[in-house]
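pinning this so it doesn't scroll away 📌
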Amino acid sequence: MEITGVEVLKARGYGMKLQVDTRATSIEAVVGQIMSRYHVADINIADPPMESIIATIYRENRPAAETGGQTSGASGEGATGETPDDPSREATASA
């Protein structure tokens, strides 16, 4: 599946788990493209877990003394690739 801003996290049988970078494309656009190409029996759209968001914010805002003079989170990636500046969402669909 080639959609800008969409990464396939898992594909098995009739199901797929996707991660969408909403800076690159909207959820509505992704769902529209999926619905036009495939028969979809069920779809689930979820924001990243709150724990992951909080951990990312904490890593990015650590004082320089704790990180040896450098700010952490330079790549800004959390457990599922989301950051406050990277509003990714996961979508799971099955046919």
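📌 and the second one:
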Amino acid sequence: MRDYSAGIPAGQADDSYRQWLSRNPSWVVVNRATNRRGLQTLHRANCDTLSYPLASRGDKQRSGKWCFESLAELEDWLKSQGKMLGDLNRCPRCME
């Protein structure tokens, strides 16, 4: 798992994040931020709704991402957090 966390200063980790997405289009990404229903959203790394560069949330706060090599790796991580795959919102564009 790669953690592109909230709080990363502007410009830092953007290149690494974009390279990771372009090199691993079938891997999965979870937004750290939640949607209106309080759910984090699961995407494929090649989803056109993911922000390039990392989304800005004001001057100092950024919307972070967790990036995983596979759904199995994500499921293992979710279990360690006391969650399940069903606790995530699936992006309707890339996860259907």
